[in-house]
């Protein structure tokens, strides 16, 4: 079983040389209507790209391109740093197509990987040039191979930070089927000192850029969310990961799960629905960011029958509103990440749109967060801004996204590492 799955995976990723990405041109001068540099909008700026990097950005009339440079006129477009997706699952597809249980239990690994290659392309063409992919949900270490395929130019996709299998306390996660023993699980079960140290190191050894832990899950009586790992276990996970230079992110939606994870030293909390003002103050104190994943809550509520705009707000959506408001009041940094995979890859902008339309953030706030903000939280100083020396990961959209978030759907140009993947 295990061997055939591994072989299927390897064969799928043999490089078709013809589809390798083209080398970047020597120099490319981009002349949009305006440049959003990760912080502010600059009308009349141009950007020079040489090789894989940005080498100059500033007022168009002051920017000299080297001889032989190709010029791309981008009238009416705003050029911005490639967007950074903070929370995706390339190996999942929307739950209203196939339930999470069925994806984990019945879909062959090769099918999941094949889908994921398409998801990666859609993510990139939607203007997201980097994604933090937070768990394969039962697809072992397939994210590491997908990342390699992208980095080697075999398939188009965003630069990936991968979490591999993620860690769950034994018995706490899923799938569960009454009376069936030893079902494959959506993440790696590990407990206690030896078990957790070993599991963290295994995941790092297999290529994890970040360790993801489920600090709570819906394993309480009546399916309520309850904490999973003890404080000591979470602290040990963070220490083990940090010693190898990896940060830890925690799935947590209960106040107690969040509190333990924050005290343990995780860098971001994913979801955070049940966060109290006290917990968010603690997050602010410890410099822990919140990735609220409002788009996933919105999507799953609609999958369960919520007719948005007609029905009253479901309790889970109301909780999310309370949490985002409390986090903002406490001054907690927000990570832009929608838990894409719960809804369609390529629809990543949904998180930013909802935060503006339903949660009261400004387009400028979400745009800063999805570029320079996410780059800072994710420790990616080489991207997220338009400035000399940074990676030439750039996107152009029709209109002004600092005033109208909907323009993020009008992606006209995508450049990653100086290579054009989409152009007008
Ligand atoms: Zn997730």
UniProtKB/TrEMBL annotation:
Record-annotated membrane-spanning stretches: none
Pfam families hit by this protein: Amidohydro_1
Single Gene Ontology MF annotation: hydrolase activity, acting on carbon-nitrogen (but not peptide) bonds
Keywords per UniProt: Hydrolase, Signal
Protein's UniProt keywords contain Hydrolase: yes
Residue stretches making up the Amidohydrolase-related domain: 78-418
Signal sequence coordinates: 1-21
Chain coiled-coil ranges: none
Name the record gives this protein: Amidohydrolase family protein
Source organism of the structure: Hymenobacter ginkgonis
């Amino acid at each position: 079983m295990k061997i055939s799955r591994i072989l299927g995976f390897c064969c799928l990723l043999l490089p078709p040389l013809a589809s390798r990405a083209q080398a970047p041109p020597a120099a490319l001068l981009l002349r949009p209507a305006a440049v959003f540099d990760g912080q502010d909008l600059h009308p009349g700026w141009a950007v020079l790209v040489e090789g894989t990097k940005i080498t100059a950005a500033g007022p168009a009339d002051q920017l000299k391109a080297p001889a032989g440079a190709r010029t791309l006129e981008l009238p009416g477009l705003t050029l911005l740093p490639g967007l950074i997706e903070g929370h995706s699952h390339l190996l999942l597809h929307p739950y209203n197509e196939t339930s999470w249980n069925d994806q984990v239990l019945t879909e062959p690994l090769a099918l999941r990987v094949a889908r994921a290659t398409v998801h990666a392309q859609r993510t990139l063409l939607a203007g997201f040039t980097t994604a933090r992919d937070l768990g394969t949900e039962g697809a072992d270490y397939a994210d590491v191979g997908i990342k390699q395929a992208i980095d080697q130019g075999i398939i188009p996709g965003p630069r990936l930070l991968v979490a591999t299998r993620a860690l769950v306390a034994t018995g706490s996660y899923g799938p569960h089927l009454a009376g069936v023993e030893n079902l494959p699980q959506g993440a790696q079960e590990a407990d206690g000192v030896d078990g957790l140290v070993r599991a963290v190191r295994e995941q790092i050894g297999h290529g994890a850029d970040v360790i993801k832990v489920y600090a709570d899950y819906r394993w309480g009586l009546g399916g309520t969310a309850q904490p999973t790992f003890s404080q000591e276990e979470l602290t040990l996970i963070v220490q083990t990961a940090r010693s190898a230079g990896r940060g830890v992110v925690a799935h947590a939606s209960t106040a107690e799960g969040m509190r333990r994870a924050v005290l343990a030293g995780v860098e971001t909390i994913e979801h955070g629905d049940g966060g109290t003002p006290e917990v968010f103050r603690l997050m602010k104190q410890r410099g822990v960011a919140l990735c609220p994943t409002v788009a996933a809550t919105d999507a799953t509520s609609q999958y369960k029958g919520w007719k948005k705009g007609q029905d009253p707000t479901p309790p889970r959506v109301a909780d999310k509103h309370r949490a985002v408001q409390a986090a903002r009041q406490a001054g907690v940094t927000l990570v832009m990440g929608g838990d894409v995979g719960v809804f369609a890859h390529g629809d990543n902008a949904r998180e930013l749109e909802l935060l503006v339309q339903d949660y009261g953030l400004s387009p400028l706030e979400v745009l800063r967060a999805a570029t320079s903000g996410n780059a800072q939280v994710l420790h990616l100083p080489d991207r997220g801004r338009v400035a000399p020396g940074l990676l030439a990961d750039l996107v152009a959209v029709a209109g002004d996204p600092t005033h109208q978030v909907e323009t993020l759907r009008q992606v006209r140009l995508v450049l990653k590492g100086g290579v054009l993947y989409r152009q007008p």
